[in-house]
């Protein structure tokens, strides 16, 4: 049976998206819940997973193509894909086994940490002792206050000993494992030559399932898979989280009191370092600033019309999609020039006025909210802004943000509209003095020249530190952003 692979339904404020990365090609065998393609919107990256086991028979849109919600982008022929496992098994004996001899031992160390970071935490071990790995394969994620560092294998071989466990605090260049070059390198061949059940077991944790397990802190060993060969699916994880796995146990013990059936449970897990840092900074912002929020609304029709008119030619010329964020950044930069107090910060009893325009862009990542900085926005064109935001979003998604990407920033833009937020009061990102919240674009009846028109409207929210920014400046700043966005020609004419 042929199954159509479609783009997910996009948020209302997102008009279209781009194919970022295909993880499969035509002819590839795929398992259920395996990530097939990453689809990128203005601010978030959506994963499209395989609904069933089968083979990719057709890919209709290449990387970089612009796509719409629910557009068909590929076709999958449903099947068990057992032939690929058999082919691999027949090829396995021909692989050389000389590399299985034990090689020299190498110490796996924590990387050198940035100057402002004293220690780090072992977040996730991706391999276990005795497991064969290839050169440059990620062994462990090490989490600092804001960035995640990957430690990769120096050569083909295997981990012989773990010296630090997940959750342990470590310091720079601390030895956290011993690695044997060449040891166990024949293990993959042995696994490929095993029966199909073992192959299914290896595929049990697809990328989306692994991510869900990591986010919820669930051990895969505690979940019974319902997929072929015991494969764990996302539905199995969700059922486990809801306590669904406990139901069969009640049949084994019918004499148990009724009160024990459906017993409520709790799970206590320590905060990650990033979550602790976010909590500390948010509390600091609430306690150490005189924070106030003012609101306005924007008619987004002029920008939507302009974007629709020039989207294709812009993408052909610059090789990147024209999104809404470049308009927001441009409008904010012009408003910061006119209201320098909003671009300033308090340092003790001094006010520091910044004569440059570094804007932090709030990015949601699997580990929490981070605010990488887009620098010198006044010197960037629309294409430069779009390219910079895309680069920061991809780094955030992949945990590749460096400390330099996160330090500095005079003002923050956060766009909760991509998640459906209609209105919010964003919290200032210290030591900055203000943050602008963009929201969902929604059709609403508006009075225009004495008549009612249905227009795509969006609420703006500016939270600011009243110690440095007065009401006059905050309202003037927000009105300037509104005027720039409702009449984009102002951005070109500087009026």
From TrEMBL:
Bias (Polar residues) ranges: 81-103
Region (Disordered): 78-106, 183-205
Pfam families xrefs: 2-oxoacid_dh, Biotin_lipoyl, E3_binding
Record GO terms (molecular function): dihydrolipoyllysine-residue succinyltransferase activity
Organism, scientific name: Aliiglaciecola lipolytica E3
EC assignment: 2.3.1.61
Catalyzed reactions per annotation: N(6)-[(R)-dihydrolipoyl]-L-lysyl-[protein] + succinyl-CoA = N(6)-[(R)-S(8)-succinyldihydrolipoyl]-L-lysyl-[protein] + CoA
GO biological process: L-lysine catabolic process to acetyl-CoA via saccharopine; tricarboxylic acid cycle
Role noted for this protein: E2 component of the 2-oxoglutarate dehydrogenase (OGDH) complex which catalyzes the second step in the conversion of 2-oxoglutarate to succinyl-CoA and CO(2).
Residue span, Lipoyl-binding domain: 2-77, 105-180
Gene Ontology cellular component list: cytosol; oxoglutarate dehydrogenase complex
Annotated Peripheral subunit-binding (PSBD) domain residues: 204-241
UniProtKB keywords: Acyltransferase, Lipoyl, Transferase, Tricarboxylic acid cycle
Gene3D superfamilies: 2.40.50.100, Chloramphenicol acetyltransferase-like domain (3.30.559.10), E3-binding domain (4.10.320.10)
Family label: Belongs to the 2-oxoacid dehydrogenase family.
Cofactor: (R)-lipoate
Domain of life assignment: Bacteria
InterPro entries: 2-oxoA_DH_lipoyl-BS (IPR003016), 2-oxoacid_dehydrogenase (IPR050537), 2-oxoacid_DH_actylTfrase (IPR001078), Biotin_lipoyl (IPR000089), CAT-like_dom_sf (IPR023213), E3-bd_dom_sf (IPR036625), PSBD (IPR004167), Single_hybrid_motif (IPR011053)
Name of the protein in its database record: Dihydrolipoyllysine-residue succinyltransferase component of 2-oxoglutarate dehydrogenase complex
Alphabetized PANTHER family for the sequence: DIHYDROLIPOYLLYSINE-RESIDUE SUCCINYLTRANSFERASE COMPONENT OF 2-OXOGLUTARATE DEHYDROGENASE COMPLEX, MITOCHONDRIAL (PTHR43416:SF5), DIHYDROLIPOYLLYSINE-RESIDUE SUCCINYLTRANSFERASE COMPONENT OF 2-OXOGLUTARATE DEHYDROGENASE COMPLEX, MITOCHONDRIAL-RELATED (PTHR43416)
Pathway stated in the Swiss-Prot or TrEMBL entry: Amino-acid degradation; L-lysine degradation via saccharopine pathway; glutaryl-CoA from L-lysine: step 6/6
Top-level EC class as recorded in UniProt: transferase
């Amino acid at each position: 049976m042929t199954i159509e692979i479609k783009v997910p339904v996009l948020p209302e404020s997102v008009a279209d998206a781009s194919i970022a990365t295909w993880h499969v090609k035509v002819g590839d065998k795929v398992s259920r819940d395996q990530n097939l393609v990453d689809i990128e919107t203005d601010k978030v990256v959506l994963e499209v997973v395989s609904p069933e086991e089968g083979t990719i028979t057709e890919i209709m849109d290449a990387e970089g193509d612009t796509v719409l919600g629910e557009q068909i982008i590929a076709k999958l022929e449903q099947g068990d894909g057992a032939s690929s496992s058999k082919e691999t098994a027949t090829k396995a004996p021909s692989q050389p086994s000389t590399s299985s001899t034990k090689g020299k031992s190498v110490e796996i160390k924590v990387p050198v940490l940035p100057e402002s970071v004293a220690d780090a935490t072992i977040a996730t071990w991706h391999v276990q002792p005795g497991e064969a790995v290839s050169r440059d394969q990620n062994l462990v994620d090490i989490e600092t206050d804001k960035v995640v560092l990957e430690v990769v294998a120096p050569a083909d071989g295997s981990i012989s000993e773990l010296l630090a466990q997940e959750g342990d605090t470590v310091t720079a260049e601390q030895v956290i494992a011993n690695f044997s070059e060449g040891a166990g390198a024949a293990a993959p061949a042995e696994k490929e030559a095993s029966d199909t059940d073992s192959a299914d077991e290896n595929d049990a944790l697809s990328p989306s399932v692994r991510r869900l397990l990591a986010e919820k802190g669930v051990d895969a060993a505690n979940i019974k898979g319902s997929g072929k060969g015991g494969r764990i699916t996302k539905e199995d994880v969700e059922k486990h989280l809801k306590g669904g796995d406990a139901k069969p146990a009640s049949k084994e013990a019918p004499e148990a009191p009724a009160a024990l059936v459906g017993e409520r449970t709790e799970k206590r897990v320590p905060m990650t370092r990033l979550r602790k840092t976010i909590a500390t900074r948010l509390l600091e912002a609430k306690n150490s600033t005189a924070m106030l929020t003012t609101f306005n609304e924007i008619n987004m029709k002029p920008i939507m019309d302009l974007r629709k008119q020039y989207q294709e030619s812009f993408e052909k010329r610059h090789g990147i999609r024209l999104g809404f964020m470049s308009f927001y950044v441009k409008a904010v930069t012009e408003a910061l020039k006119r209201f320098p107090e909003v671009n300033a910060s308090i340092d003790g009893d001094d006010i520091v006025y910044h004569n440059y325009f570094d804007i932090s862009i709030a990015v949601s990542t699997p580990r929490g909210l981070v605010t990488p900085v887009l620098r010198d926005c006044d010197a960037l064109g629309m294409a430069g802004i779009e390219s910079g935001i895309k680069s920061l979003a991809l780094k955030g998604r992949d945990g590749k943000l460096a400390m330099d990407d996160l330090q500095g920033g005079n003002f923050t833009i956060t766009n909760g509209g991509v998640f459906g937020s209609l209105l919010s009061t964003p919290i200032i990102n210290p030591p900055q003095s203000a943050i602008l919240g963009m929201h969902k674009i929604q059709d609403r009846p508006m009075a225009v020249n004495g008549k009612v028109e249905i227009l795509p409207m969006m609420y703006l929210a500016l939270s600011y530190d009243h110690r440095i920014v007065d009401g006059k400046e905050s309202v003037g700043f927000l009105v300037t952003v509104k005027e720039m966005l409702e009449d984009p020609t102002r951005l070109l004419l500087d009026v």
